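Please go through the protein record below and explain what the C-alpha cells say about the fold. Record follows.
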Amino acid sequence: MMSSGCPLMHRALVIGDDAQLLAQISSVLARKNSYLPILDGPRIQRPDADAEVIRRNNAAARVAPSAIFFAGLTNTTCDEFKSYFPSERCFLISNVDELRKAQHGQVMRSRKVLTWGKDRIGIGLLNALRTKREIEFTDSNSSEGMISSDSGHLVVCEEGDELAQVIAANYAYAIDAGLCLVPFVSEEDAERIRETFYGLYDDRENSPTSLLEQLRAELRQRAAAIPEKQYRMITFISKELPWGFAFSEVPSSHLFIYPDLGISLINGIAAEQSNAPGIRVAAVIDPKAVDAPEIELAAKCLAERSVLVRGYRGANATVSEISRMIELLPYDFLLIATHCGDADGWRWTYEFVDSEGIERKLIVDVAIGVSHVPGREKLEVMQFTKFVSLDGVDWADPEKKKKLNVGNAIKDYLARAEQLEPVKRESIGRVRWSAALKMFDNNLILAPRALADNGSPIVLNNACASWHRLAGTFAFCNARAYIGTLFSVSNAEAQDVAMNILDRHFGKSLALALWHAQNAVYQDSIRRPYLLVGTHFQRLRTKVQDKPKYLLERLSLSEQYWSKRAGRTEPSDVSNTLTFDDYVRFLNGEIEGLRRHFYGADKGSTDKGSQQIRGQIFILDTRPPPPSRNIGDAHDFMHFLPKR
C-alpha cells in the first residue's frame, strides 16, 4: 500500500447491476491492498444515455484495465460500449463459472466457500475477502452488521442499496478498514436534516447552537452501531447526509451512493497513484461579492509551491466567464470565494396530456441565472428546475410510487419543456437546492457539462452553505474531492480554514488537513461547518514540471477539438453553434493571454525561458473594462510575480 493510504488499482474493471453477482465476482478477483473497481451499468433509459456510457468510458481510462467484465448485463447494454472498449479485453459473463472459464489472464481465488444470507451482503463480502473464500448466497438472514479492523479506519455505509455495500466492502478491503452498516434514512428525513442545517440562522425559536446539538444527537442516534473511540478515521458512504458533522472527534470523509459511487472511488484512487501529476494548475475565483482575503493569500501560497495559479477577480468573474472556465480550463484545484444560497424564482404549474394519453398536472419551482456572453446580442439563461408535485402528490413523498403512476410524465415534460406554457405562474422567495453562486454580474447556477476539460480536480468552495446540492453536482461531474460548508461562515472563519488547509497542512491527506483546520479555528465549539466529499487520502501535492507549457498545450488541444466540433455543426443547429463558438472564444482568450504573459508578444516558440518559470499567478484581461470598473482590479495578484 502507498504511504498516503491510497491502495493500488486492480487491473480488472467490473460493470453490472446485480449486487449478488458482483459480490461473487469480487470474492474471486479482489486482492489485498488493491482496489477492484466496480461500476453500475449505464442508465440507458435516461435522456442522456450517451453521457452515461461516456462517463464509464472515462472512468475505465483512469483504471487502464487489462480486462473488463460485463456482469449480468444485456447484449444491448454491452453493445453501447463497442466503440469505446477494445473487444479483446471485454468479457460478457452471467455467473462465476463463466468468469473462471474466460481467458482473461486475471488471478482468481481458490474455491473455498463462505455461505451468507441475502441481506447485509457487504459484511458477508468483506468476511469472504478477508478469509480468502468465494461467497455464495442462501435464503437465510445474516445478523452481523459490522467487521472491525486494527487499522484505525472504519467505512460506514447506509443500508438500502446492495450495490453500494458491495463497492464499500471492496473499498474497505483495499484500505484494510472495518465496515459498519447503519440503518437506511428515508429521503423525507434526510431532506429535513439537510434543511435544518441550511436554515440554521432562520429559526427564531431556537439558537443555532441548540439546533446543531439536536442535529448532532439525531445523527449519532441513527448511527448508534458505530463504536465510540475505536477509530482514527471514518469514511461515510451515504445518500448525501452529513454524518461527519456528528463525529467531529475524528477526521472523516463522505462518498455519495448515488450517482456513480464507483466512478467517485476510481477518480480518487487514480489521482493518488505514484505516477499521478498532482496539482499543476489552480483556478481561484473572487467576484468581490464578499470580502475574501483568503483568495490572495491562497494564490500566493500555491504559487510558492510551484503551482500555476489562474485568477478570476472582480469584473473578470462574470457568470459567462466562470461557467466556461469551470468546464474548459484544465485546472487541478479550484478555490471559490463568494456568496452561495438558494435564489428566488417562480412556481410554475403545467397541465398537459402525456404520451400515454394521461392528463397531468405538474408543478415545478424555477430559478434562473442570466449572463451576457461577449460577442452576442442576446443573453444566455441557465434554468434550474425542482419538481414540487405531480397530479397532486408531493414529489418528496416517500410513498409517491404507491400513490402515483409517474409513467412517461417527466420524460414527456423534459422533451416538450420549451413548447409547454405554464397555466399558472407565481413568484417565490426561495427555490430550494438552486444553490446559486454570486458572480460579479449575476447568479451562477451550476450545471456543468464537465469539469476542468474532463479532468478530476479538487474543489474548495469557500462559500456559505455550499455543501447543499453543489457537493453532489461537483462529485457527479468528476471532482475527486470537494470541500464545502453546511451553513454560514464568517469571513474570518473562511480565511482561517482555507489557509490552514493550503499552508500549514499542505501535503497532508485532505481529511486530516480539514480536521486539523477546524479544530484550530473552532476548538471546543460544536460548529464544524466544513465537510469533505471524496476519498480521505486526497492530497494537495506538486511535482516539478513546466506548468505554463503544459497549460498552453492542453488549451491548444481543446481549442482544436471545439473548433472542429463547431465546423461540423449544421447551420440550423443554432444552440450548439453558439455554444461551440463561445467555447472557442474563451479558449483563444486564455491562449493569447497565457502567451502574452509568459512568452511576451511573440507567439512562436513556447520553450524560450519556460523552464525557469515555476509557480506564478496571473489574471488575464481579454475584454475592455466597463466604465465603472477600477482597472487595477484585473492585476491584484501581479505583485507576486517573480521579476522576469
Summary: The longest strand covers residues 359-372. The chain has 18 helices and 28 strands. Residues 602-615, 619-644 have pLDDT under 50 and may be disordered. Residues 232 and 250 are 6 Å apart (CA to CA).
